[in-house]
TrEMBL record:
Its EC number is 2.1.1.228. Signal peptide: none annotated. It is found in: Cytoplasm. Transmembrane segments: none annotated. It catalyses: guanosine(37) in tRNA + S-adenosyl-L-methionine = N(1)-methylguanosine(37) in tRNA + S-adenosyl-L-homocysteine + H(+). It comes from the Bacteria. One of its GO terms (molecular function) is tRNA (guanine(37)-N1)-methyltransferase activity. The keyword Transferase applies. Keywords: Cytoplasm, Methyltransferase, S-adenosyl-L-methionine, Transferase, tRNA processing. It comes from Nocardioides mangrovi. Belongs to the RNA methyltransferase TrmD family. S-adenosyl-L-methionine binds at G110, L134, G135, D136, Y137, V138, L139. This is tRNA (guanine-N(1)-)-methyltransferase. Specifically methylates guanosine-37 in various tRNAs. The gene is trmD.
């Protein structure tokens, strides 16, 4: 998978060299290229923004540098173009799974009040475009969102994770939050690991974990529970 990132702050993407994504790069599973949008400006001040038509606070990113940058990157072949913006579709594990199937992703990281809408409309006429939000809060720009989306997507690329089971068992993969986990010692500061986990009874352990996952989800994220029978035999009480 090739990932290009267009930003006016290329240094923001330095963490891509580290840990998970860095490992994927070493293995040759992903090819990440970070580009400074200002390379596609032509004035002395390398201007990327201007005042909004219609008035209002803040600045809007000018279309020309974006258009030229996207022309150049898309000339290498088809790609999914992801605009990171608080007005995008919420980023979820399902979106991560979908993006993990793509050969190429180009992240366009907006700053200020956003990018001139014509950039998104124009590139949408010649490439798959996704507008993605990290959540219902406003960051200073889309770089952190591009990092987060990259990390969530790259770990789903086949061959990346050593243990495929840990992918299917984690939070959100089955639509529920993950059950609580424990490791040795069995007793710590007077707190014991739930006895069922020491029982060796795999069916009982699976049932306990499912029950805990449903309880947690009901307490913390009831919006994730469909109007289903999941809760039929679960007593709902708050999770600390
Ligand atoms: N840029 C600013 N805020 C953002 C958010 N919540 N998600 C994605 N990109 C953003």
């Amino acid at each position: 998978m090739r990932i290009d990132v267009l930003t006016i702050f290329p240094d923001y993407l330095a963490p891509l060299e580290l840990s998970l994504a860095g490992k994927a790069r070493e293995k040759g599973l992903i090819d990440v290229r970070v580009h400074d949008l200002r390379a596609w400006t032509h004035d002395r001040h390398r201007t990327v923004d201007d005042t909004p038509y219609g008035g209002g606070a803040g600045m809007v990113m000018k279309p020309e540098p974006w258009g030229e940058a996207l022309d150049e990157l898309l000339a290498d072949g088809p790609a999914t173009v992801v605009f990171t913006t608080p007005s995008g579709q919420p980023f979820t594990q399902a979106v991560a799974r979908e993006l993990a199937t793509r050969e190429r992703i180009v992240f366009a990281c907006g700053r200020y009040e956003g990018i001139d809408q014509r950039v998104i409309d124009e590139v949408g006429s010649r490439a798959e475009v996704r507008e993605i939000s990290l959540g219902d809060y406003v960051l200073n720009g889309g770089e952190v969102a591009a990092l987060a989306v990259t990390e969530a997507v790259v770990r789903l690329v086949p061959g990346f994770m050593g243990n495929a089971e840990s992918l299917t068992e984690e939070s959100h993969e089955d639509g529920l939050l993950e059950y609580p986990v424990y490791t040795k010692p069995a007793s710590w500061r007077g707190l014991d690991v739930p006895p069922v986990l020491l029982s060796g009874d795999h069916a009982a352990i699976a049932a306990w974990r499912r029950d805990q996952a449903v309880r947690r989800t009901a307490a913390r994220r009831p919006d994730l529970l469909p109007a289903s029978t999941l809760l039929d035999d679960v007593e709902i009480r708050p999770v600390e």
